[in-house]
Amino acid sequence: MNLVFLLFINLFCATTASGPVVETSFGPVLGKWMKSHWGYRIAAYLGIPYAEPPLGILRFETPVPWVNNWTKLRDATEDGPMCPQLNRFGEFVGDEDCLHLNIFVPELYSSEKLPVLVFVHGGAFITGSNNSTLLSPSYLLDRKLILVTVNYRLGILGFLSSGNEASPGNYGIKDVLEALKWIQENIEHFGGDPTSVTLSGQSAGASLAHHLGLSKRTEGLFDKLITHSGVANAPWGIHPSHHAKIRYTFVALAGQVGCGQSDEDIIDCLRQVDPKLLTLQLSFFQVWNGHSYCNFGPTIESDSEDAIVIRHPLSTIERGEFRDIPWISGVVSDEGLLKSMKGLLANPQFLDEFESKFEDVVSLYLETEEIVMNETVFSEELMNFYSLFDGNISEEASNINLTAMTSDGLMNYWIYEALNAQAMKMNSSVFFYEFAYEGTFTSTYSYQYPQRYGIGHADDLNYLFPISNVKYLDLQLHNTASDETMINIMTEMWANFVRTGIPQARLTPDWEPYQEDFRFMKLGMGRSPVISMEEDFLPIRMEFWRNLMSNVSAPMELIFPTREEDQDEDLDEILEEEIDQTDQSNINLLNPFLMLLPISICSLYFVHC
């Protein structure tokens, strides 16, 4: 009787009257039974710790691996607490003891070790969790894989950076890294194959996953990558550590809670502040009419044993120092509804203010304020290209144009930029998709606006997890036959990618790699779940953004100076070139060191001015 078969017997024959039991290296774990979409049984093990609670001196530190054994049966039948955050009413929820995994295993009748899909939730780096009701395994586990969902530290507790070694930041990324290490060491107890692990994420979670996928320090932890609506190089997904915004945020937070003196003293003081008080400070950093932006997120840090993000992602890609693994990346057709509908179209007062102060707020709105150096040209070009606030077109057309601008400036261009930079340097295949199916359930229901205007941010996830079905249960809607078709197509494609690195499904076209003539898969067309291969994603709009950003932003190497050895190689040459090409009156805009000088808070946080 071989070891794998013994593991199979241990996992699936060990049950109690109340649920399945797994014997792990830490002790026995009691799970619960759930049902898949097709009615199969799923063993769910919830709230399993992968790291020590980041309390006290462990706050603002790299996570410490979980090593404690439990001597009696551990109850893993309920979700662990979410990490500290503010709910939609601005109230504090969660607990710092939140570094837990949920593991879902299909009931099997063979000894085959299963591939593993690890999912990292989104939420602007400040909200979200691995809640087993929203991130339910019911769709995906009909496809015979193991699903692991991860909690990680959020907001101030997860991403506070001082811009130096006092608090380098990126604790949330390091949490996910520690979870991946735990999975490597323990997933075989659950019947999983540690040599076949796919890391996936959505929105902010996709950015974290991409950062980890670029880092050579994750070798051996996963071998495939999926990013839904997010990449590491998006302006909201990476911050330069030297930027005035980072220092302002750090010092302002210290002042808000009464911590002062040196950076090290501030961190020591912040470790003693109640997590509720710290988390409530998030509202202080919301900009422009209380809208939440990614002030706390991934930041470039000095190279060290624990560091993951040591350069701008595009610099890492340009140097060829990233992991060459199969990758699926994608967007939904109307990503911008996340902000255009929720923040503007549903509130005429905000929309009027947005129009009247467009030059002042558009970079805050698109979260490009750290890289755009010429706000006047930036705003004028956007208004002209997208025909914004044009009285000669209908209100509906104007709203669609506003959403298109938001889609491109928040998501589309940065994903396009990453694909074109990275795919052509890879031997592994890169697969790109646009989700264009307008199904019964949509995230836009939450915006309380009478019209949908398209396919919203995270709508693609609803065909892998029944998120909106759960959120909008009171609407008494049900999946249609077309919805079921899309669920079947996406879960089969994703499961085959997790298993083989090739996303394919029966009765659909072969998904050709992006490297072949910039090909991408279009998933759906309006109300129809039709699948088609397309070529060139939004070519006119993407070319506009390529030209726009080259005209209004300083070179990346100046905005994101990193390690001294990199600067020694590159910076002198770039500075000399830029001085030759730039009018002397604008030279301060290109000097990263002058960005540390005192600046108007108005230029960073419109809401406070």
Automatic annotation (TrEMBL):
<keyword id="KW-0325">Glycoprotein</keyword>
<feature type="signal peptide">
    <location>
        <begin position="1"/>
        <end position="18"/>
    </location>
</feature>
<dbReference type="InterPro" id="IPR019826">
    <property type="entry name" value="Carboxylesterase_B_AS"/>
</dbReference>
<feature type="domain" description="Carboxylesterase type B">
    <location>
        <begin position="19"/>
        <end position="528"/>
    </location>
</feature>
<comment type="similarity">
    <text>Belongs to the 'GDXG' lipolytic enzyme family.</text>
</comment>
<dbReference type="InterPro" id="IPR002168">
    <property type="entry name" value="Lipase_GDXG_HIS_AS"/>
</dbReference>
<dbReference type="InterPro" id="IPR029058">
    <property type="entry name" value="AB_hydrolase_fold"/>
</dbReference>
<dbReference type="Pfam" id="PF00135">
    <property type="entry name" value="COesterase"/>
</dbReference>
<keyword id="KW-0732">Signal</keyword>
<keyword id="KW-1015">Disulfide bond</keyword>
<comment type="similarity">
    <text>Belongs to the type-B carboxylesterase/lipase family.</text>
</comment>
<keyword id="KW-0719">Serine esterase</keyword>
<dbReference type="InterPro" id="IPR002018">
    <property type="entry name" value="CarbesteraseB"/>
</dbReference>
<dbReference type="GO" id="GO:0052689">
    <property type="term" value="F:carboxylic ester hydrolase activity"/>
</dbReference>
<protein>
    <recommendedName>
        <fullName>Carboxylic ester hydrolase</fullName>
        <ecNumber>3.1.1.-</ecNumber>
    </recommendedName>
</protein>
<keyword id="KW-0378">Hydrolase</keyword>
